[in-house]
Each structure stands twice: as structure tokens, then as C-alpha cells.
Specification:
The protein is an alpha/beta fold. The chain is 39% helix and 13% strand. The structure holds pyridoxal-5'-phosphate. Pyridoxal-5'-phosphate binds next to α3 and α4.
Length: 376
């Protein structure tokens, strides 16, 4: 069976973990966390970054930093991972779900504009498959209404919108290093803070609501409880693993892009005039090759395709289920039907894409898809 995903080592991960362990400091904010912070700030020019234990945690920090209160409204896409909105639901926010674009799962800016009220306190966008949302339009709408934007860039490391790194455009960007992403550390995340005024409080919230970070810099004589907070910082063992990956980011991205392009070139021939669609990368976005997906014509076809691939040793998977019609939220969703989100819920299928996937395996998968469409 060709798995959907497979975590991989690039050589130095275990060496760095051993190094972290032998230095005697394996709690948070050790040597490797600092190395990772420097890497992100230098490569992407983020004003300030803080490693977290997950993208979920980074989103929760963003919700606390934006001071989201009970009854506040937060606009987000329905076609996304639960963490995108759970972070805000935890603060008591009402999630106002927006629809996707017709030809891409990313949030439709026209939809956002319609959903803004005097209670809207944040707009959360997701760069699906690492492809940028239409950020100029989104930022213009947000700025007109004085509403902060959070970029859920969990899938979007090393991807750009008109030359700007994703995660650097909104007030906050949040990243994931979960083992299913491009750059991994098992679990892991990052908060990018693009507005200076949030940096000080972010350090406090990440350290259980204490001013421990200021204390270690010698800025205060003792540290104590100064705000709400939690334990959002990862062990330096996680950072050690991550740093080994970051050192190889160009190699990883080059290979992932080659796999993505091979799929695209072969399948654009196989799927021509079949009704099954290839992924679209908007001209304002780069492609970080996070994901290779297809959009089927309907649920029956997708189910049959996944089954056909499974019968031929390929593990392909569908993705999100519209959150506005989830068990938890369907009674709370007061808004419109969201047909585009439901369409991707029913029809999108993701193909295996991981560093060690070989060209032969890609060719096998494409051949199986060819046989599937020819058998119809
Ligand atoms: C993976 C993912 C998350 C969650 O990341 P974790 O690091 O597992 O918390 C959030 N949002 C999106 C869009 C994701 O793809």
C-alpha cells in the first residue's frame, strides 16, 4: 500500500535531539527553540515569532491576544480544520461561517464583506493547500472596518502572496509542524506576530500568564502572575527535531514541488474532458506543494475513486466536512447555505504526497486514475 503520508528524517534530527538532551535543558525556550526562532525571523522577515506546541495553540493565543469575548463574532471559512474556529469558540465567540470560492476551497472575500457586523472582532482566513487567499481584497475589507485578520497558515509554510510570505500579512499568522505538514516535528506550531503591540503580551500568555520571559532577560527583578495564559511553549526536544528539518527546507520543498508537478503534468492529460478537476493555484500565489488534490463531479464518483485506488494499493483520502453543518455547530449556524463548502466536502480527494514518494509511485497512482476514468 502506498500510504497517504509518511514522516521522514533528514539525518540530523536524532543528533540534535541527543544534543538537546545532553545540554541538560529540555524544557521550553532552549538553544534549539532560539535557533528555530532566528530561522523564521530571518528567512521570512516576521517581526516576532514564538514556537508553540501546535497550530491549534498558536490560534488559541491569537484569540486571547485579540481579547475575544463572549458574544463577539468571528468570520471564518466553513471548509477548514476544527482548530481554526475552536480557538475562538473557546473564548465564547460566535463563529460566522463564510463560503469558499467556486473554484478553490479558500474563503470568498465577497462573502466576508457581507457577513461583517458591528460585533465582528476577527476574520480568520485559511490558505488551503498552501495557496494564498486573495489577501489584498481581504485586507482592504478588514482595514476599512478596523478588524484584525488571522492567517491560519498551518499548510502554508514557505508560500507567498505577491512576494510576501504567508503568515506575515495579517495581524497574526499561525503555522503547524504536525507530521502531515511539509516541515514536521511530530506536533508543533508557530505564532507569527506582525503587529508589535502584541509581542509583550504574547510572551506572557505563552508562559502561563507570567512575565518569566522578561525576568530571564533581566528586565524585571522577579516574575509572577500578571495575566491569563497557559503553557503554549514546546519542549526543546521538539525544536531540535524541527531545526534539522528547517536546515533542509529547500531540499524538502524542491522534492515536494517535483512530485506535485509530476502529478499535474500526467493528470492534466489523463483527466482532460473527464469532469474531474485539477487543483488551481491563483496567479497571486506561489505553490508550496503541500497537497495534491482532485475535485470529483459528485460524492458517488469520489467514493468510487477512493475505493478503486484502495483496491490498487493507494491510500487516497477526502478532507474537511463543512463545519457549519457539523454536529456541534449546525444548530448554532444561523447563516445561509454554503454550497461551495459543501461541494468540496463531497468531492475533494487528496493523493499521497510526501518527501519519500518515488516517481514510480506517482506514475502508478496516475495510471490507476487513468484506469478509473477509462472504466466509466
Ligand atoms: C493542520 C491544521 C491545523 C492544526 O494544526 P495542529 O498543529 O495539528 O494544531 C489547523 N488549521 C489547518 C488549516 C490545518 O491544516
Amino acid at each position: 500500500m502506498i500510504p497517504f503520508n509518511k514522516p521522514y528524517l533528514h539525518g540530523k534530527e536524532l543528533v540534535y535531539i541527543a544534543q538537546a538532551v545532553t545540554t541538560g535543558k529540555i524544557s521550553g525556550d532552549g538553544v534549539f527553540t532560539k535557533k528555530c526562532h532566528d530561522f523564521f525571523e530571518q528567512r521570512y522577515g516576521f517581526k516576532k515569532v514564538l514556537m508553540t506546541t501546535s497550530c491549534t495553540d498558536a490560534l488559541e493565543m491569537a484569540a486571547i491576544l485579540l481579547d475575544i469575548q463572549i458574544g463577539d463574532e468571528v468570520i471564518a471559512p466553513s471548509y477548514t480544520f476544527v482548530s481554526t474556529v475552536n480557538a475562538f469558540a473557546l473564548r465564547g465567540a460566535k463563529i460566522v461561517f463564510a463560503d469558499s470560492l467556486p473554484d478553490h476551497p479558500n474563503i470568498d472575500p465577497v462573502n466576508i464583506a457581507r457577513l461583517i457586523t458591528s460585533k465582528t472582532k476577527a476574520i480568520v482566513v485559511v490558505h488551503y493547500a498552501g495557496v494564498a487567499c486573495d489577501m489584498d481584497t481581504i485586507m482592504a475589507i478588514a482595514n476599512q472596518n478596523n478588524i484584525p485578520v488571522v492567517e491560519d497558515a498551518a499548510q502554508a509554510i514557505d508560500s507567498y502572496y505577491k512576494g510576501k510570505p504567508l503568515g506575515s500579512i495579517g495581524t497574526f499568522g499561525t503555522f503547524s509542524f504536525h507530521e502531515t505538514k511539509n516541515i514536521i516535528s511530530g506536533e508543533g506550531g508557530l505564532l507569527a506576530i506582525n503587529d508589535e503591540k502584541y509581542i509583550h503580551r504574547a510572551e506572557i500568555i505563552r508562559e502561563k500568564g507570567t512575565n518569566r520571559s522578561s525576568f530571564f532577560r533581566g528586565e524585571v527583578a522577579k516574575y509572577g502572575w500578571v495575566d491569563i495564559g497557559s503553557s503554549f511553549l514546546p519542549s526543546d526536544i521538539i525544536a531540535a527535531y524541527l531545526f534539522a528539518q528547517l536546515e533542509n527546507i529547500d531540499k524538502i520543498q524542491t522534492r515536494r514541488n517535483a512530485i506535485w508537478q509530476r502529478y499535474y503534468d500526467k493528470l492534466s492529460i489523463v483527466l482532460a474532458n473527464t469532469g474531474i478537476e485539477l487543483p488551481i493555484v491563483a496567479d497571486y500565489s506561489t505553490n508550496n506543494a503541500h497537497m495534491f488534490y482532485l475535485v470529483c463531479e459528485n460524492l458517488e464518483q469520489r467514493t468510487a475513486l477512493i475505493q478503486h485506488l484502495k483496491d490498487n494499493c493507494v491510500h487516497a483520502v477526502f478532507h474537511y466536512l463543512s463545519l457549519h453543518s457539523s454536529e456541534f455547530y449546525q444548530d448554532k449556524h444561523a447563516g445561509d447555505a454554503l454550497p461551495k463548502s459543501d461541494h468540496f466536502t463531497d468531492t475533494l480527494v487528496r493523493l499521497p504526497l510526501f518527501y519519500e514518494l518515488t516517481d514510480e509511485q506517482v506514475d502508478h497512482i496516475c495510471l490507476q486514475i487513468k484506469q478509473f476514468v477509462e472504466s466509466k
